[in-house]
Structure formats: structure tokens, C-alpha cells
Design a protein that fits this description.
Elements (H helix, E strand, L loop, with lengths): L6 E8 L7 H11 L3 E8 L5 H7 L7 E4 L4 H7 L2 E2 L1 H6 L4 E5 L2 E5 L2 H13 L8 E5 L3 H12 L4 E5 L3 H10 L5 E3 L5 H7 L2 E4 L23 E4 L8 H8 L3 E3 L2 H16 L7 H10 L5
Parallel strand pairs: 1-2, 1-3, 4-6, 7-8, 7-10, 8-9, 10-11, 11-12
Antiparallel strand pairs: 3-5, 5-6
């Protein structure tokens, strides 16, 4: 149980960070669960990031979310790490404790919990997935799928070396590199198709996939949430496939951070989703 007299001073650090939806989510949960505190966005320029992260507790902060481009910086300054942080080499959640700075990564759990909630399928043992991308988000996604028991994870990315580095980091099988000339074959096998790139985001070109080749039971998950209904998800819906948008992953990773800091697992409500859509200008 959380001490109800405690005041939680929390925030998010990034550059830029004004667009972040994190203050909306965390301040909503603080209010809904009758916890005293505030959550703010802190824009920090690259030359100042190490000082900001190592001294945040001197300003009274108990926890910080860390977003692009500072997740690896956060990993390096943390004195203790969760398994998810070690596996991904990145930290998006810092906790300032009496015995040091604790680093965690909640992206993996946020992704997979949203997959379960939205797909209606809790057991993915033996399934196959096609993941597009090889950045930090893809790393969290692929790690989640490996731990969930997927039999095969096809990883497609234009940069072969970067994709292979991710595969090597996570120990190889069941993750295999998928070159362009084998993407159609992977599509035919995939129970889950994940866009873990920025393609399809507002101002970016769409991710081109031939979803006519996908199995009827396939789920298509796009981590992009601006717009909510990306060209990929629109094409998947037109094909009659199950679609999963990126807003739920965003909420899921924030929800885990909130629980780490406060000891309270926050409620998932339609009201919060509406608040976030309003902030996004209902870009759905």
C-alpha cells in the first residue's frame, strides 16, 4: 500500500518533449487514485542530459520517464537495472531510491499487454510473427515475442547490419532476419504483423506490405499512434484482419511506470483514451 500522505513528484525528460502525452496520463491517474503529486515534462538539451538525470532527485523527483533520444543515457546512469532494461540496453523509467537510481524498461510489457487485451488471445506459444524495424521499439517488441513463446519471429529491416545486431543481442533463435525477397513468404506464415518503425506516422511515407498474402487470422499491430488509424491499419481493416493501434502500447508502458513509482496499478478507462485523442486532435 502507498502512504497516502506521500507527495509524488514525477516527470518525463526528452528533446523535444512538448508533444508528450505522458503528463496527461500520469496526472489523470494521480487524480483518479487520490494520490498527491504532479507529473511534468522537462525539455533537456543533449549537453545537459547526464547532469539532469543524475541530479533529478536533488530537485525532489522520485521518478522520471525518459524518451527519445535519451534511453541509452538513462541506462548508463542507473546504478541498478531490471532484467528488461538489461535485455534491451535501454531505460525509459528511472526511480530515485535511497540505495541508488533504478532503471527499468516498460516498453516490452506495454506492448505485449496491449496485444493480449486487443487480440483476445493470451497464449501465443508456437505462433509466427513478422516484425518490421530494428530500432529500440523493435527490440522491445521482439523481446516480448521471444519471451511469449513465439516459434518464429521474422525481422525485416533495410539495414541488415542493424537487424543482425538486434538478433545477436537477443540470442538468435527464434528470431531470424527476413530479407526483402522473403517478406512475402513471412507474411503468409505470420499470425502477427508488427510495424515497429515510424513509417505511417504523420509526415512519413506509409509502410508498404501486401496484406493480401496474410492469413485471415493474422493480427496487424502498428506502434504508431499519430494518426491512430495508419495506412497500414486501414489496409488491414479493409482486408478483414484484426487491427491494433499504438495508443494502447503507449498507455501500457506508462501504466507500468506509474505502478513502479506509486505501487498502484492504475485503471484503464475509456475516459483516459478520450482525453488522449482530444490532445492528439482526434487524428484517428
Amino acid at each position: 500500500m502507498t502512504d497516502q500522505t506521500e507527495y509524488f513528484c514525477l516527470g518525463v525528460v526528452g528533446w523535444p518533449v512538448a508533444h508528450s502525452l505522458s503528463p496527461i496520463m500520469h496526472n489523470y491517474w494521480l487524480q483518479k487514485h487520490h494520490l498527491k503529486g504532479t507529473y511534468s515534462a522537462f525539455p533537456v538539451q543533449p549537453p545537459d542530459i547526464e547532469t539532469a538525470l543524475t541530479s533529478a532527485d536533488k530537485l525532489g523527483l522520485q521518478g522520471l520517464n525518459v524518451t527519445i533520444p535519451y534511453k541509452e543515457n538513462a541506462f548508463s546512469i542507473a546504478s541498478k537495472h531490471s532484467k528488461a532494461a538489461v535485455d534491451t540496453g535501454a531505460v525509459n523509467t528511472l526511480s530515485y531510491r535511497n540505495d541508488g537510481i533504478y532503471g527499468d524498461n516498460t516498453d516490452k510489457d506495454g506492448f505485449f499487454q496491449h496485444l493480449i487485451n486487443s487480440s483476445g488471445r493470451s497464449d501465443w506459444t508456437g505462433a509466427a510473427a513478422l516484425v518490421i524495424g530494428a530500432g529500440g521499439a523493435a527490440l522491445a517488441v521482439v523481446l516480448a515475442l521471444k519471451e511469449a513463446g513465439f516459434a518464429r519471429v521474422f525481422l525485416a529491416n533495410r539495414n541488415v547490419d542493424r537487424a543482425q545486431s538486434l538478433i545477436d543481442r537477443l540470442g538468435g533463435a527464434p528470431i531470424v532476419f527476413c530479407p526483402d525477397n522473403e517478406k512475402d513468404s513471412a507474411l503468409k506464415q505470420a499470425d502477427l504483423i508488427v510495424n515497429a518503425t515510424s513509417l505511417g506516422m504523420s509526415g512519413q511515407p506509409a509502410l508498404e506490405l501486401n496484406l493480401d498474402l496474410a492469413q485471415d487470422r493474422a493480427c496487424v499491430y502498428d506502434i504508431v499512434y499519430t494518426p491512430l488509424h495508419t495506412p497500414l491499419l486501414k489496409a488491414a481493416a479493409a482486408r478483414g484482419l484484426t487491427t491494433i493501434d499504438g495508443l494502447g502500447m503507449l498507455i501500457g508502458q506508462a501504466r507500468k511506470s506509474f505502478e513502479i513509482w506509486t505501487g498502484v496499478e492504475p485503471d484503464l478507462t475509456d475516459e483516459l483514451r478520450t482525453l488522449l485523442l482530444d490532445r492528439l486532435g482526434r487524428s484517428a
